[in-house]
Known about the structure:
Radius of gyration: 25 Å
Number of strands: 18
Number of domains: 2
Structural class: mainly beta
Shape: elongated
Largest sheet: 6 strands, mixed
Helix content: 10-25%
Distance between the termini: 67 Å
Order of helices and strands: EEHEEHEHEEHHEEEEEEEEEEE
Amino acid sequence: MSEYRRFFGLRVEHDFFAPSRCEALDVGLDPASHALLARAGIVVRQEPDGIQAYYDADSEDVLRSWLADPRERFRLVFRLTPGDPSFLRYTDLPEDRQGLVRLLDTEVDGPSGVVFSLQPPAEADPERASSLAALEAELITRRDVLVPPLAVLVVLVGPSVLSDDPPEPYRLSFTARKTQWRYHLLGDLAGRQAFIRDQSPDPTDQIRFVPGGAVSLPGGRVAQTLVSEGLLPLRWRADRRLQLREGESGSERVLVRRLPVASPEDLSIATIDGRQTVVSDIYVNG
Length: 286
């Protein structure tokens, strides 16, 4: 009976979902790479948060000579596309990064298991920038131009992946977008001298909210606003407990025990302190 060992893996991580898995990005293997793996006898398994490939240990010597062939590198091409339509709203990734070709060489970039993120090629590495330009010309298809993927990931696989210890999957890391949270107090709450108390257990992580003045809303409504002094990351599940209170210190009264938190669907652009800022608008009726 054949023994299959890990050949290559890619796992997507996103701190918007942390500590849960990120299942919002599709990792697609292009047809030529799929055929290459089939010829090499490598089994590919799609996972909710990435991809895993395994090889037959009985074929290791043949595969090693194939991977070490200097005339033609063993190349895998993946297209990364958001499976969640809101992905770009909660991800700290400027739109001009879409369509980026990212090159990963297992012989150069160190052992698998390292974290890498989608960044443009470093100006200080002209050789890699030149390689990426050549790959762009070769790999970018008409469909990629019409419907840009988030990125095209090119992986050059060398013999080091056939070590005695199965390599850990590479981790593709994304950062959650940070926004300024702006609470709009409506109804009776708009007339209260209310403030927000951050109940986060770590005092160094607590954030203050300051009055942002009155805002006119559609329908002739007026809301009083409270705005975070700093930027807060968006999260799939709330990791911050905020209370709406009124009164003086020592005799505070809780108006809303747990305020709703920011959602990727509630983003807007506002001018705060003279600067245009991405804002999460949160509405609280009372």
